Amino acid sequence: MPQSQRQHDAVDRITSQWRDVRPDLDHSPVEVIGRVSRLSRLVDRRLGQNFARFGLQDWMYDVLATLRRSGEPYALTAGDLVRQTMVTTGAVTHRIDRLEERGLVERTQTGDDRRKVLVRLTTEGFDLVEAVVEAHLATEREILTGLGVRRQQELAGTLRDLLLGMGD
User: Fold this and answer.
1) CA–CA separation, 49 vs 93, rounded Å?
2) How many structural domains are present in the chain?
3) Rounded to two decimals, what is the model's pTM?
4) Is residue 51 part of a domain?
5) Domain containing 125 — which CATH number?
6) What are the tens digits of pLDDT across the range 34-57?
7) Is residue 140 part of a domain?
8) How many C-beta atoms surround the C-beta of residue 57 within 10 A?
9) What confidence tens digit (pLDDT) does each residue in 113-166 have?
10) How many CA atoms lie within 13 A of 75 on its CB side?
11) Residue 67 to residue 129: CA distance in whole angstroms
12) Range of the domain at 146
């Protein structure tokens, strides 16, 4: 579709304003970074609405899903959770406390080493994450309906390259 016939988004308006007041600068990075940033906020809001239907916040789902996808016995150490969820040790401890209060996870000691504690999904936590993951993936699929399968695959590859280029 020719550029003149394309719909304009908020980033188009922003870059147009910058071109008007600072035509000497290359504003092309805003075309990508601005859209990724706006898209992140919109996606987070949409996913958050879905999680709220289940009485969860995004960070709760993150911990529960990490435990679920680890496979049986659906348990990890706090250190494993830190590495797999990319948050600080203090944040993970707080999250585990909150999920434990709700009966979604439990702490258990392993073997002879009383210092090593596993965080395990309870039956209630397992059942909840099983229900949420289906709705979550449906919401993500719905978000991507504007792109065909091929464009989704291309975008996924492009975003992977960008993440790897930033050291992820």
Assistant:
1) 25
2) 1
3) 0.82
4) no
5) 1.10.10.10
6) 999 999 999 999 999 999 999 999
7) yes
8) 13
9) 666 789 999 999 999 999 999 999 999 999 999 999 999 999 999 999 999 999
10) 13
11) 9
12) 56-168
